[in-house]
Amino acid sequence: MKKLTDLEYLKLSKFQAFWYNIKMFICAIPSWLKKLFMGIVNFFVKCGTAVKDEFVDIFTTFTKGNWAVKTSFFIFGFGNMYYGQFLRGLLFLLFEVVFFGYMFVPSGGLHWLGKGNWFQIGKTVGTVQGSFQYDMIYDTDVWVPGDDSVKVMLYGLLTIIFIFAFIYTWRLQVKQCRICMDITAKGKRVKSGKDDLKSLIDDQFHKTLLALPVTGIALFTVLPIIYMVLVAFTSYDAAHDGYSNLFSWVGLEHFNELLDFGNGGLGLAFGEILSWTLMWSFFATFTNYFLGMFVAIMINKKGIRLKKFWRTALVMTIAIPQFVSLLYVSKLFDSSGIIGELLGQIPFIKEYLTTNHYISLWDSPTVAKVLVIVINIWVGIPYVMLQATGILMNIPQDLYESSRVDGANTIQQYTKITLPYMLFVTGPSLLTSFVNNLNNFNVIYLLSGGNPLNTEIGTAGGVSVGHTDLLITWLYKMALGSADSEYYMASVIGIVIFLVCAILSLIIYNVIPSTKNEEDFQ
């Protein structure tokens, strides 16, 4: 399709411009996919090139290095100590000693790696199953523990991470030895241990400060995420808890089950819940955003009295914990609640409930979905109002004055000045709000609990599926809401949620004005 010039585009009517933009978007999809494919290919090419360069550099270092550098290939830190860096050398050597000590002790790394049967489909995580055995002393069966699959997989994972850390440290100290050799060959002095300590509180002080937080993130964020991903490839549930009954590796079986739209699969339930999750997130985000902005504009408007009162009244709705307010509001709309009874007396609502044999408003799938969106507006507007109030006060008033001189009305001022400025400033926040609503467990679970039951699906993953269930509430029900406790399927859904959030975040982030039209607001 031929691309119009700026002058030709400006001559188009609003409808023609809208239709032109749609056609350009559709035509751009193949090129976008091509760029995506080429980007993936280039990424793997760069990774391959980097790996090749590393191997070439290692080979060159060994062949051209002196005896101290070559010795450091086998004894960590030897080259550093040879060139006077005793502190670095001792730390590297200590790391090597600790690594081999951990790996070869009777209950060390090799023990946990051997117990794990890593990714061998059908094999259990752990080799010794606990069982009841007769005890002659007590004259009864006693439990004799075997392996614990949870512990085996955790320690095995830590061992694998330790091995990667060992390889990285080995490469780092070899590279440092090569650098020391080159510096010495030029007649220069290498850094001593005293210089390293000074550097850690001077030009490298950021590393000193970040060492503890990064370690904490690795242990308490990254490691649990990796462990959760591994659970998706096992049969970990209440029946296979890893202690009384070992769980095993199953490969992609659970992913196939989630995407299976046949009679025995979860594809239908997954599709229903995913579509409602995206719909909920869209409406929950943008209704709060635009209505909260509208409330902020109305309060900030000249001539409005008691501005502090209106702001305080709205803020009070978020001062009360959501756990209390949402449960209370849920009961208000129940058949025995005040609002539920009043609405139930309206003729057309009463006829609708009676015809469909619904006891309360929460029993209707459509009404329940509308209710959770409307109640979420009540919860979310104050946050957006507070955010928008500060931003609106920073929009230059001369823009509005000049637009009024040019004959712009209120709607034109909003669409051409207020909204673009708000979208530019709050774009990242709007994206964050959208992702948070994808995982908004509180509002859905406390208001409706995922109900009413979706009779077309019934149960999926061992739990009942409701019309208002999100992926996150479905995950919770699978993990903790049933006796089966299908942790493996909850892990699969967790991975799917991550992929949905990541893909949508990348797409939206690249089209919001905050990143696309940054120069327009400089």
CATH architecture of the largest domain: Orthogonal Bundle
Give me the count of strands. 4
According to CATH, the homologous superfamily of the largest domain is MetI-like
CATH topology of the largest domain: MetI-like fold
Between the first and last Cα atoms, what is the distance in angstroms?
Answer: 33 Å
Helix content: 55-70%
Number of helices: 22
Main sheet: strands, sense, barrel: 2 strands, antiparallel
Mean pLDDT: 87
Name of the top-level CATH class of the largest domain:
Mainly Alpha
Strand order of the largest sheet: 1-2
How would you describe this structure in keywords?
522 residues; mainly alpha; MetI-like fold; 3 domains; two-stranded antiparallel sheet; two-stranded antiparallel ribbon; 22 helices; 4 strands; 68% helix; globular
Give the topology, please:
Layout: H1 6-10, H2 14-64, H3 67-72, H4 78-82, H5 86-104, H6 109-116, E1 131-135, E2 140-144, H7 149-185, H8 193-200, H9 205-231, H10 253-258, H11 267-300, H12 307-319, H13 322-332, H14 338-344, H15 347-355, H16 365-392, H17 397-405, H18 410-438, H19 441-447, E3 459-460, E4 463-464, H20 471-480, H21 487-509, H22 513-516
Antiparallel strand pairs: 1-2, 3-4
Helix pairs in contact: 5-7, 6-7, 9-21, 11-16, 11-18, 12-16, 13-19, 18-21, 20-21
